[in-house]
Write a structure and sequence with these properties.
about 50% helix, alpha/beta
Length: about 650
Amino acid sequence: MAQCVQSVQEFIQDSFVPMVAVLCSEDAEKLTRKNNLNFSELLRPFCRLTSEGHMRDPNNQVQVVKNLRISVNNVVTRPSVPASGVPGHAHRRLLSEVVLTCQPAEGGVANVITAGDYDLNISATTPWFEAYRESFLQSMPASDHEFLNHYLACLLVVSSSEAVPVEKFLKLSQEQHRIQHSGEYTNPKWFIPNTLKYYVLLHDMSQGDEQRADSVYEDMKQRYGAQGCYLLKVNSRTAAAGADEQIPDPWSQYLHKNSLQSQVQLGPRQRTSEVDGHDSEEKDGVLVNSLDNTHPLQLDTPSDTPGSLDALRAVAVETKPPPIATGVAAATSHGACLTLNDHDRIRLFIQEFTFRGLLPHIEKNIRQLNDQLVSRKGLSRSLFSATKKWFGGGKVPEKSIAELKNTSGLLYPPEAPELQIRKMADLCFLVQLYDLAYSCYHTAKKDFLSDQAMLYAAGALEMAAVSAFLQVGAPRPYPAHYMDTAIQTYRDVSKNMILAERCALLSAEVLKSQAKYSDAATLLIKMTSEDSDLRSALLLEQAAHCFINMRNPMVRKFAFHMILAGHRFSKAGQKRHALRCYCQAMQVYKGKGWSLAEDHINFTIGRQSFTLRQPENAVTAFRHILTNDSQQTSTQQGAFLREYLYVYKDTYFHDRLTR
């Protein structure tokens, strides 16, 4: 795989973070809208803590929590991604747009790798893959078999301008309780029954009564405790004042990532149309020409059959996906009413909420769960184990994944001891108690396998492997076989490709960090399939990078998988990425006597360049396949010549018109 900006430990920690919900009053929402932000967006750039937190584990030992990030989101009562495990239209469209907008920088850093007779110029990083991976993991749906994407706390936000703020807090608290406990909503999902409610009084410094806000806050501290509420003061300047002062905009890098909620409201579109007389269809959220659905190593037949000169004319117009509705214009400025002191106040609020509210809440619940599990383990579970031993059920019979398909739908009640162990494991993992998390996951895995609850077992296996890797000092080797079993179960038993893909992305990154490039490449290639060209293209490209980064670089495997990736990128409507892959592969085949392979790559580069309105590059590529010593048939050479003349003529007339 290509180099990543984050270390593997940072990547995994950022993939699983404590989730915090937000419920805002209308006046509070209006107050934040002055900055073209809602409240959760206002907090987003400040959600990574810059100082260390401390908490006690069940053994009363102080543990340090470093570099913690929390995720803050508005409460949405309908799921953004189907829990079925099959990515929906909006999900595919988001990921496709993320990859489409992240292209290689002109003059970007490249690695020159020398392997035998080859000097290959290869991109050092693949930011489009990292952007895809980040968006994919952040849009993971909450599942019933795990608690990692469930909300631990809820911020109740009320403006100080309310006539009676405490009454508004009561209404928001009742609303949160109704959403969580009424049974009306399956989303969002909540981690524990007693969700932490944190009361935030939002005060507008530019027009509010500060003395009244302080008075209301004193009353709140009496009602909710100093640890359970906060007075946040913002909007210290008007948008007109200090227009010449340059205030940084930390929100832009977060808000360009389109929210799934806004896309889901658009609904799926069946967009089948014709492009210049040729059928087109939508794949991975991008409109693509049906002519891209050919074999990656297939050359076109003569012009009297579909796919030659007519096809070139058809793809001369590059198809682009319609813009995704973001709800925020690209040119909109954010935080126009905020000063740097306001930024510091927001940062301090996040720190106070996390250190004085969230972490103590998590610590208390870990302790309670531990006490419950210890007492249960001493009574019911020991009795259960003894019963199984007396009546012959000590060991789980060895069965293949295929034999366990009929148990994949098993569900536990919320109060089941097995789920309490999993809940404690997830809590420990989120606050970096990896030793205790591993122990809990390992115990839960045994219980789930005993019950043949394969989805639950796969989840425990996945997180046990990650916890083992993240343990300080790595007391045990990374159990890659846990991940392999989890992927197979997710994919073949539970039919959940979203979870299988998450598992593969995590495991591949760990294997790469241990220089096990061959294992990582094998894993990535296994995850390619016909259901998603975009995912397959990205994983094939990463597999190619694994082959070239091995101690003894496998140059031809690198090139072959780059061609496969280029073909899948093309099918997914990602023309620029397709062209880049073919150009990188060309470095291996050029001048090595593989003339037919060179012809295929040059032909594809010519077509993609012409589609992307790069006529000079297209002419150059087509010219390379018109040689005296060509090994193509005369018919195929004639087809190449006609296409070359068409492109040349188009380029010539274009130059004449632009002079």
